[in-house]
Amino acid sequence: MRQRPAHPLDDHESPSRTFARAWAQRLHEVSFVPRRLGRTIPLLQDLTALLAAALTGDEPDPAAGHHAGTALVEAQLWSPAALRASVEHIHTRLRSDLGITHPDAADRLGPLLGAFTEAFAEGVRAVALTETDDLRRHERATAQRAVLQAEQERQHALLHDQVSGLPNRHALTEHLTTLAAKSDRLAVCVLNLVRFAEISDALGTDPADALLREVGLRMRDLAVTHGLFAAHLGGDEFVLVQAGTRGPDDAVKLFDLVREALAYPWGPAAHPVQLDAKGGLLERAATGAVAGELLRTAKMALTWAKSDPVGSYAMFEQHRHDADRRRHTLSRDLPGAVRNGALRLAYQPIVSLTDRRVVAVEALARWRHPDHGEVAPAEFIPLAERIGLLNRLIGAQLRAAGRHALKWQRTGRPVRLNLNVSTAQLTDPSLPAIVGEALDETGFPPDLLTFEVTEESITTPQASTLAALAALGASFAVDDFGTGYSNFARLHEVSRTAVTSLKVDRSLLASSDVLLTTLVTLAHGLRLHAVAEGVETEDQAAHVRKLGYDHAQGILFGAPAPPDEVAALL
C-alpha cells in the first residue's frame, strides 16, 4: 500500500482532533479510503464528539453509536477491516485520549459499540440491497460477507466482555440456565481480584486493562483444560462454573485451581504484580436452580470472603444467609422501634444480703419484633451500636425508666436505677448531653442513677465522658467484674470519684473461695460495694454473704419483670 505523508500536529490541536487524526490513519492503514486524509478527519472528528457526548451525558445514548456506524458506511468506509479498526480504536483510546472520567463511561461503552456495529451492518446491508444489477459478482459477495461478519462481530460483542474477551453476564446467565435443565449438580465460583483497585490506581487504566486481559487468558486456559465455563462480570469480578460436581469439596477444588492459575506474577520481571483472589463458592443440585439466584448467592458468599481478613474463600450456607437477612431486618426496624416506643423495659432487683431489701433495680431493654418475636438484648444492642443508635436508645430507656422509678417513689420509697452503657457509647461525646436532657425531662434525681460499665470502659481512656456523667450526679458500677482486663491503678483512681460497686460476674460463683474472697477484699479495699451476680439458690446466697459480699442479683431474688410487678417488690 502506498505510504501517505505524515501530518505534523499543531501544538494547539484539540484532543478530539488528535483522536480523529489517529482514527483516520488507522483506516488508511487497513482499508481503501475513497477520499483524502484531510477530508476524512473532519468527519471522524464530528463522530468523535458525538461518541464522547454519549459517554458523558446525563443519560446513556446508544443512538450516537448508531449514527456513527451509519456515517462510516455513507462515507464508503464499509470494509470489515475498517469496522474492526474503528471498534478497536474507540474501545482502547476514546476514554483515555479525551480524558473522559464519567463514572458510567466504561459501562456505556459496550452498548455504544454494539449500536455502532449494528448500524454499520445495517448500512452495509442497505448498500448491498441498493447496488445496481451491474455490481460485479465478487463485489456483491464481498458486501454480503461484510454483512455476515459484522453481524457475527455484533453478536460476539453482545455476549463477551470488551476487555477480557470472556463471555459476559448475559452469556453466563444463558449457560447457567442450560446447565440447570440438564445437569445433576453444579458449582459456581465468583472471584474478586485482591488489591485490583490499588493496582489500577498505581498503574493506570491501560495497564489495569492489560492485567484483566491476562486474567481472562488464564481463566480461558483453565476452562479449556478442565471443561469449565469462564465469564467476566466486569471490573475485577470473574466467574467459573463447573457441571457434574459431587459436593462442596469440588467447589473448593475449583477455587484452588483458580489460585494456582493466578500464582505466577504478571508484568515485567523488574516490577512483577502478584495476583490473588477471594472466592465466593456455591455448590448445589441443579434441579430448580435459577441463573440469577445462583449468581446472587455465590456473590453473597464472596461478600463473606471479602470481610474475612484471614480466609480466602467462603462457601454459601443457607443458615448464614438467614442470619444475615435477620440482622438486616432487625437493623432496618430498630430505629422505628426506638422512635415509637416499641422497646420496653424489664427490671431485675439488686438486694442487700443482710436483710433482702431491694437497694437498686437494673433496667434491661426488651424488644418483641412483629415477625421475629422476642429479640434478646445481646442481639439488638450490637446492632444498635453498628447503626449508630446506641445513644438514642439509652436516651429513650432513661426517659422510660425515670418515669417508672418516679412512679414507684410516689407509692413506696426511692430506689436506685442501674442502666447499662457500653464502651462504644462512652466514646461518644454527646452521651452526657443526652443523659442530661432525659434527666431534665423526667425529673429523675441523678444521684439515684448508676451506669453499669465494663472493665474495658474503666481501663480505657474515656475519662472526659465518665467525668461529665459524674458531674451530672450519676455513679458507676463495674459490671461482669473478673472476666476482663483490669487496670487496678485506673480502678483505684475512678473509685475515688463515682464508682460505687463491683459486680462480680456470675461465671465466677463456681470458682474457688480464694478468688471470690480476693475480689470482695479488693472491692472493700477500694471502699466499694461487692455485688454477686447470677445468684440462683439459697445456698449460693448464704455462701457469698459469708464471704463478705454486700449485695446480690439473680433469679433467687427476682427475674427481670415489668414495672408493675417490680412495684410490689419495693
Automatic annotation (TrEMBL):
Residues 184-318 form the GGDEF domain. It comes from the Bacteria. Pfam families: EAL (PF00563), GGDEF (PF00990). GO terms for molecular function: cyclic-guanylate-specific phosphodiesterase activity. Residues 327-570 form the EAL domain. This is Diguanylate cyclase/phosphodiesterase. It comes from Dactylosporangium sucinum.
